[in-house]
Design brief:
Two copies of one chain form a homodimer. Chain A contains ten helices and five strands, in the order βαβααααβαβααβαα. The first copy, chain A, has 198 residues and is of the alpha/beta class. Chain A has a single domain, classed as Rossmann fold, CATH 3.40.50. A five-stranded parallel β-sheet of chain A has the order 2-3-1-4-5, with helices on both faces. The longest helix of chain A is centred in the last third of the chain and has 23 residues. Chain A is globular, with a radius of gyration of 17 Å. Chain A starts with a strand and ends with a helix. The mean pLDDT of chain A is 86. Chains A and B meet through β5 and α10 of A and β5 and α10 of B.
């Protein structure tokens, strides 16, 4: 197994857990928080700014920002600057050898750089995701959970579309997409490992 | 293995060949031409009309028809009538037990009827698909091949969206999507069989 695996995922679909297990089974590094840490080191931005860069930008904020700037958001914009450093960090991790990289448009960043990857997208129904997020956060209000899913999905969609020009979750951007709610996490791990095999 | 497997696919992505091999490996029926034959028998329409129902409707034709009727296309419309008979044929095949069903919105038809399925979508890059279509048709003009891909994709997209209200190829409509160009047909067969296992 000589591949870099990127995992994009809907919020609450278990992408982190599945990605970690794939990396463990293959004996290769799993990069998620490390990307944040390295980006903080390299950019000078604080942990909180980098950590919430992707997740907390709402579609409305983003549109407003685009309209107010009267042009495409510039490289000097905090978000673009963080993305640029993150891009370099991801390329460096990929250069070091086979690994699993979670989120952050790694699929598109590596494709553009001509790095061979297995690109995976993981999704699940709202019912499955709400149950998972409830488990993780302790929140038991169905309305609150639904709001959290919609907000995170909106942010990820906006972020992905902005930086890649492609539709988040369209099967044609990935080599493999999986419904983790219907298939189960263990089956997803098995399928990704099988897809990555030589 | 106790599942019905539906396979939707881009033109030239090898969905027919992959579906047939999955059915052979699992020892279950593969329905493609049988759906056409049964629909001809049950509807009274001739083979040619039924056969080209899905494939040959261009997006422009479809829009024009919708505008001219000044309302949503009616049930008496040939296309809707064929779809309705095809729906019944697909439900009957599914009722008879595990099988592989190719195309024709079977994923959505069975989901609405509450039938448990594994829904698969198969796609590939234009380069891979053009090579495959060239092999199948003998056409060697790159421009002609590109035109064929665009026409068939347009028809399938329009047909799927019209009858399901969903976006053709969005990963969230399927349990598993595969890039057959990057993964290879044999690997796709292996992954579908593994995903369908109990």
């Amino acid at each position: 197994m000589n591949k870099i695996i990127t995992i994009s995922r809907e919020y609450g679909a278990g992408g982190h857990s599945i990605g970690r297990q794939v990396a463990e089974q293959l004996g290769i590094p799993f990069y998620d928080r490390d990307i944040v840490r390295e980006t903080v080191k390299a950019s000078g931005f604080d942990m909180d700014t980098v950590e919430h860069d992707q997740e907390d930008v709402s579609r409305a904020d983003f549109l407003l920002k685009s309209i107010c700037s009267l042009s495409a958001p510039s490289y000097n914009d905090t978000q673009d600057a963080i993305h640029e450093v993150q891009r370099a960090v991801i390329l460096q991790f990929a250069k070091a050898g086979p690994c699993v990289i979670l989120g952050r448009c790694a699929d598109d960043i590596l494709r553009r750089a001509g790095v061979e990857c297995l690109n995976v997208f993981i999704h699940a129904s709202d019912v499955h995701r709400a149950a998972r997020v409830s488990e993780l956060t302790g929140c038991t209000s169905a309305a609150e959970l639904q709001k959290m899913l919609a907000k995170k999905d909106g942010s990820r969609h906006t972020y992905y579309t902005h930086y890649t020009g492609k539709r988040w979750g369209d099967s044609r951007n990935y080599h493999l997409t999986l419904d983790s709610g219907a298939l189960g996490y263990a089956r997803c791990v098995q399928l990704i490992v099988a897809a990555a095999a030589d």
